[in-house]
Amino acid sequence: MAEFTRGFGGRRRESDPRLPPGQYLTADFPVLSAGPTPRIPESEWSFSIRAESGQVTSWSWSEFLALPSEDVHTDIHCVTRWSKLDTTWRGVSVDTLFAGIDTAYEYAMAHSYGGYTTNVPMADLRGGKAWIAYAFDGKPLDPEHGGPARLLVPHLYFWKSAKWVRGLSMQKHDDPGFWEQNGYNLHGDPWTEERYW
Ligand SMILES: Nc1nc2c(c(=O)[nH]1)N[C@H]1C(S)=C(S)[C@@H](COP(=O)(O)O)O[C@H]1N2
Ligand SMILES: [Mo]
Q: Which residue's CA is the nearest one to ligand 1's atom 2?
C-alpha cells in the first residue's frame, strides 16, 4: 500500500511505529534550553553521585573518560512534539557509575551546571536505560546540546535528559525538578503521553 506524507513537516504516526502518539518527525536537532549555555572547561568538570549516607563519589573528566563506554542508537522525543529517530551517542551507562555505590533509595535528582534539575526514578536510570553521554554523531557533544556531557534517558521525554549534567543525588521521594515544578509530568513516558500533570 502506498504511504503519503500528510501535512507540513511531519508524517502520521502509522507511517512509523517508532513515533509515539502526538509526535512529529524532525530531521533537525532543535536546541531547547531554559537559560544560557554554560561553558564548562573539561579541566573544571566533574560528575558526582551523592548517596543517602552523605557519601559522594566523583569523577574528573579524565576519570570519567577512562570508564567503559557504549554506543547508543536511539530515538528521542521532546514534549513539544518533535521526535528525532536514529540518533547516535556515546556515553557511560548509569549502571557503570552505580556499580560501587551503596543506595537503597528509589529516586534520583539530576543536577546540571546552570541550575537545571530533573527528577528520575532509579528504575528508569538502571538496567541499560540511561547514560551520561559525551558524544553525538561521532563528535564531542556541542555545548548547545549539553556538552561536555548530558544525561541521556531516551525512553522518557527529552526534558529528563539533563544537559550539562554535573551529578545525581539520591532521593527518598520523587520530588519535582525544574520543569516538573512548572507543570510537566513527574515521569514523562512518551508512549502514554505523560506530558503534563
Ligand atoms: N540543563 C538543561 N537540560 C535540559 C534543558 C534545559 O533547559 N537545561 N532542556 C530540556 C528539554 S525541555 C529538552 S527537549 C532537551 C533539549 O535538548 P537539545 O537542546 O539537545 O535538543 O534538553 C533537556 N535538558
Ligand atoms: Mo523539551
A: 163
Residue 144's CB is within 10 A of a number of other CB atoms, namely 12
For residue 58, give Cα distances in angstroms to 14, 62, 126.
45, 11, 18
Q: Determine which residue's CA is closest to atom 23 belonging to ligand 1.
A: 159
Q: 136 C-alpha vs ligand 2 centroid, how far in Å?
A: 18
**Residue ranges, the chain, pLDDT below 50:** 1-13
CA–CA separation, 111 vs 62, rounded Å? 20
* CA of 151, closest atom in ligand 1: 24
Question: How much is the pTM?
Answer: 0.94
Tell me how far the alpha carbon of residue 82 lies from the centroid of ligand 2, in angstroms. Answer: 9
pLDDT computed for residue 8 by the predictor? 45
Sequence-ordered list of residues with C-beta below 8 angstroms from that of 17, at least 6 positions apart, any chain: none
Condensed to tens digits (0 to 9), the pLDDT of residues 143-165 reads: 999 999 999 999 999 999 999 99
Residue whose cell numbers read 528508569: 124
